[in-house]
């Protein structure tokens, strides 16, 4: 009967409401934890270079009589300062990306151009390591987005592919477009990633091998920046890897549709 039905429905609604509240609370708690972790990680990441900077300043002070020593310490001081600047920039960039869900004022971006430029930015580092980078980017495909953000994302993937390659290794970068999607694939034959680590590499500050990653100068933010950039562009990023054989990272983005053909002016007589 009606009152019975009504009270059952009210009870259901009530349960749903309580569930919603509970979900909300756990989401808020989760975000809070994420925020606290982030701050803890940042302070941890900054402590090492800051400690180095003050040690080096002291060392320069006490080596005042030896110009060669002073020069060497000053050089290292510069390198540590550069590292601090890089981490700070990446943290700022990442928090901006996380604060928004979409790209501000998207424009038509030529994907081939972005990819070719990102590879060029990595040529010197690749050359120093004798890593050959082969590019195939001739699709003419375009996406809507922020060219600067997309460049950083592709740059990070290519830089990683080189950093985690052996000396003399090969890296392949390719763009393909089909079915309304543009795919950018970056493949290396480097150290690879264990299956258990695959999901985690996109987390902020996550590094499979802390010592090795520190030597490559990474901050552990590169792939988090890639992930958030790609998500803000409505796409996704995936990774395949075999430990000891290499990895492939692929970014998929929705292709921008061709602008409609200019329509013939309407015939006023008809
Ligand atoms: P990092 O600055 O340490 O490179 P990233 O966020 O770019 O930070 O990458 C996170 C971790 O994922 C790296 O420390 C490394 O362990 C692993 N990784 C990323 N790219 C590759 C790759 N191409 N091959 C093997 N491992 C990789």
Description:
It is a single chain. This protein is an alpha+beta fold and 270 residues long. 54% of the residues lie in helices and 17% in strands. Strands 2-4-5-7-6 form a 5-stranded mixed beta sheet. A hairpin with a 3-residue loop joins strand 6 (236-242) and strand 7 (246-254). The longest helix is centred in the first third of the chain and has 61 residues, at 2-62. The chain is globular. Bound molecules: adenosine-5'-diphosphate. Adenosine-5'-diphosphate binds at residues 156, 160-161, 164, 188, 190-193, 201, 206-209, 213, 218-224, 247. Its main location: membrane. Its EC number is 2.7.13.3. GO terms for molecular function: phosphoprotein phosphatase activity; phosphorelay sensor kinase activity. It comes from Agromyces archimandritae.
Topology diagram in text:
Elements: H1 2-62, H2 67-99, E1 107-110, H3 111-121, H4 123-128, E2 132-136, E3 142-145, H5 147-163, E4 170-178, E5 181-188, H6 210-215, H7 222-232, E6 236-242, E7 246-254
Parallel strand pairs: 2-4
Antiparallel strand pairs: 1-3, 4-5, 5-7, 6-7
This protein binds adenosine-5'-diphosphate.
Domain Histidine kinase: 41-257
Enzyme class: transferase
GO molecular function, one term: phosphorelay sensor kinase activity
Task: Give the tags.
two-stranded antiparallel ribbon, globular, alpha+beta, 270 residues, binds adenosine-5'-diphosphate, five-stranded mixed beta sheet
* pLDDT averaged residue by residue: 87
Which strand order do you get reading across the main beta sheet?
Answer: 2-4-5-7-6
Hetero compounds: adenosine-5'-diphosphate
Secondary-structure element series: HHEHHEEHEEHHEE
Instruction: Decide which structural class fits the backbone.
Output: alpha+beta
In percent terms, what proportion of residues is strand? 15-25%
- Strand segment count: 7
Q: Rg, please?
A: 25 Å
Q: What's the helical proportion of residues?
A: 40-55%
Number of helices: 7
What is the 3D shape? globular
Q: Tell me which oligomeric state these chains represent.
A: single chain
Taking pLDDT < 50 over at least 5 consecutive residues as the criterion, the unreliable ranges are none
* Sheet with the most strands, sense and barrel status: 5 strands, mixed
First-to-last CA distance = 64 Å
Region (Disordered): 243-270
Domain Histidine kinase: 41-257
Protein name: Sensor-like histidine kinase SenX3
GO molecular function: phosphoprotein phosphatase activity; phosphorelay sensor kinase activity
């Amino acid at each position: 009967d009606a009152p019975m039905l009504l009270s059952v429905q009210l009870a259901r609604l009530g349960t749903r409401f309580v569930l919603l509240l509970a979900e909300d609370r756990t989401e808020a708690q989760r975000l809070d934890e994420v925020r606290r972790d982030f701050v803890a990680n940042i302070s941890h990441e900054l402590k090492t270079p800051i400690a180095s900077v003050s040690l080096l300043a002291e060392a320069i002070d006490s080596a005042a009589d030896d110009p060669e020593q002073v020069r060497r310490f000053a050089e290292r001081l510069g390198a540590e300062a550069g590292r601090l600047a890089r981490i700070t920039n990446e943290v700022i960039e990442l928090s901006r990306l996380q604060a928004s869900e979409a790209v501000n004022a998207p424009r038509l971006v030529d994907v081939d151009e972005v990819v070719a430029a990102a590879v060029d930015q990595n040529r010197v580092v690749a050359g120093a390591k004798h890593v050959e980078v082969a590019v195939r980017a001739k699709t003419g495909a375009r996406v809507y987005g922020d060219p600067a953000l997309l460049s950083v994302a592709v740059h990070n993937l290519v830089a990683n592919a080189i950093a985690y390659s052996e000396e003399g290794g090969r890296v392949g970068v390719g763009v393909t477009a089909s079915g309304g999607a543009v795919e950018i694939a970056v493949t290396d034959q480097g150290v690879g990633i264990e299956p258990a680590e695959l999901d985690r590499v996109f987390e902020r500050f996550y590094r499979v091998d802390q010592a090795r990653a520190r030597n490559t100068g990474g901050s552990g933010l590169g792939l988090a920046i890639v992930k958030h950039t790609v998500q803000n562009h409505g796409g996704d990023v995936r990774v395949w890897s075999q430990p000891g054989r290499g990895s492939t990272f692929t970014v998929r983005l929705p292709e921008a549709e061709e602008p409609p053909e200019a329509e013939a002016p309407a015939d006023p007589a008809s």
